[in-house]
Amino acid sequence: MSNKGEGNVITRVIAASSLGTMIEWYDFYIFGMLAKTISTEFFPEGNATAALLSTLAIFAAGFIVRPFGALVFGRLGDIFGRKSTFLLTLVLMGGSTFLIGLVPGYKTIGIAAPLLVLLLRLIQGLALGGEYGGAATYVAEHAPANRRGYFTSWIQTTATLGLFLALGVIMLVKMNMNDAAFNSEWGGWRYPFWFSILLVGVSVYIRMKMEESPLFSKLKSEGKTAKNPLKESFSHKANFKMVLLALFGAVMGQGVVWYTGQFYAQSFLETKAMLDFEQSRTIMLWAILFATPFFIFFGWLSDKIGRKWIMLLGMLIAILTYRPIFSYLLEKSDTTAWQGQAVTSGTVDIVKRTPVGHTGDTLITTVQSMQYATGAGYKQERVDTLIGATHQVQMGKAIIKDKVLPADLYWKFIGLVFLLILYVTMVYGPIAAFLVELFPIRIRYTSMSLPYHIGNGVFGGLVPFIGVLLQTTFTSDPLVGLWYPIAVAALCFIIGAIYLNNKIDDEVND
């Protein structure tokens, strides 16, 4: 085949694989993006923190089962082929996402609501466990060895682009309705779940037209495919050693850096910095947009100088700078620093009166809106109690929320979140090629999928949940949630620096 023909083939392979994988990530992440709203719909009222933790636990459950999906679908992919297996995972993921959007809320069906969502979330996790390994393997087996990092790095962009798409769709829906309409039981927050079925339909159509991986087809025609990929992957000492090395020397650290730079950062902007919905999302959108090309750059660079030190350097910089960066975000979003600025407007509105049972008392929710000449602003919400018998007012604690940063500070925040995602591109851009090159073709799908999904699904996926849990437990340190990813990345850096090779011998595995 001519170089032009080969180029057309690999372009189609990358496009078809990347589109489907991006849609799967979109499906998986809209749940996390809407965790705060979902917590109010699928759990009883009364304890917002417990409801959010329960929602994040369901979110984390989808990550925890990803290794099992890697085993199930990895085995299918090594026996029956890459194409048919990750076509199946796409259908399962899209169907589960669509059905989450159809589950009635807690007020309608009670405890069945969170249980149904948990079941569908587990199916999502299993499907994603089989998708990534198939897509990465499929692209790698079409790519020449000396450009494998570059070609597989396009697949690496899909996780971030899926997040970008999820944020974009949610923002589009949110900007076209008020808060009450968006957050109601059958409100706008469900639209992104329903939208996924259209995306999946397009991707299935494209993937149906794809051919099987040439390396796997050759292996199959020669009768050399694995009869029991799980046994070959994990009972053979040399291969199992590589699985463990991949997990503890590379993917574990990559996973926590990925989720800290994107999910923990977004949660931090919303729940700790208390930025308003639009600014917290657009900061993430701009940072993702600017950082995404670096997945390709570091994938290309890994073909030139090796994968190891690019990934480990990304971990090391993250370890050293996480707390200073998040400390700056917290400090500069403190509204006490804005007090001396000129005020352009300030209003106080009583937005709700809620009777307290049969006591005669009334809860009065008051919102004070402040706007400064610099463009900064915020809302201060306070719930006071009007004592029925005496008409005395018991003052509640004021909560500052929906902060709007001035333009100069807004772009500084974007720059810092960009740095967090740049670390992600360093650790994530080369890792698909790194994992593919560790294992033989006959058991590649199974062997590479397991460490990837334990590293990302378990160690990485638990970052938001453990972060919130630590913050709830150790309330004196608002940055305490960062110690988990810092510790995991540090351990991974040490193991990787000592035991990982910088260059894999392609001849052994191909």
UniProtKB/TrEMBL annotation:
<feature type="transmembrane region" description="Helical">
    <location>
        <begin position="482"/>
        <end position="500"/>
    </location>
</feature>
<feature type="transmembrane region" description="Helical">
    <location>
        <begin position="191"/>
        <end position="208"/>
    </location>
</feature>
<feature type="transmembrane region" description="Helical">
    <location>
        <begin position="413"/>
        <end position="438"/>
    </location>
</feature>
<dbReference type="InterPro" id="IPR020846">
    <property type="entry name" value="MFS_dom"/>
</dbReference>
<keyword id="KW-1133">Transmembrane helix</keyword>
<feature type="transmembrane region" description="Helical">
    <location>
        <begin position="450"/>
        <end position="470"/>
    </location>
</feature>
<keyword id="KW-0472">Membrane</keyword>
<dbReference type="InterPro" id="IPR036259">
    <property type="entry name" value="MFS_trans_sf"/>
</dbReference>
<keyword id="KW-1003">Cell membrane</keyword>
<feature type="transmembrane region" description="Helical">
    <location>
        <begin position="85"/>
        <end position="103"/>
    </location>
</feature>
<feature type="transmembrane region" description="Helical">
    <location>
        <begin position="243"/>
        <end position="263"/>
    </location>
</feature>
<keyword id="KW-0813">Transport</keyword>
<feature type="transmembrane region" description="Helical">
    <location>
        <begin position="150"/>
        <end position="171"/>
    </location>
</feature>
<feature type="domain" description="Major facilitator superfamily (MFS) profile">
    <location>
        <begin position="13"/>
        <end position="505"/>
    </location>
</feature>
<feature type="transmembrane region" description="Helical">
    <location>
        <begin position="283"/>
        <end position="302"/>
    </location>
</feature>
<dbReference type="InterPro" id="IPR005828">
    <property type="entry name" value="MFS_sugar_transport-like"/>
</dbReference>
<dbReference type="InterPro" id="IPR005829">
    <property type="entry name" value="Sugar_transporter_CS"/>
</dbReference>
<feature type="transmembrane region" description="Helical">
    <location>
        <begin position="309"/>
        <end position="330"/>
    </location>
</feature>
<protein>
    <submittedName>
        <fullName>MFS transporter</fullName>
    </submittedName>
</protein>
<feature type="transmembrane region" description="Helical">
    <location>
        <begin position="12"/>
        <end position="31"/>
    </location>
</feature>
<dbReference type="Pfam" id="PF00083">
    <property type="entry name" value="Sugar_tr"/>
</dbReference>
<keyword id="KW-0812">Transmembrane</keyword>
<feature type="transmembrane region" description="Helical">
    <location>
        <begin position="109"/>
        <end position="129"/>
    </location>
</feature>
<feature type="transmembrane region" description="Helical">
    <location>
        <begin position="51"/>
        <end position="73"/>
    </location>
</feature>
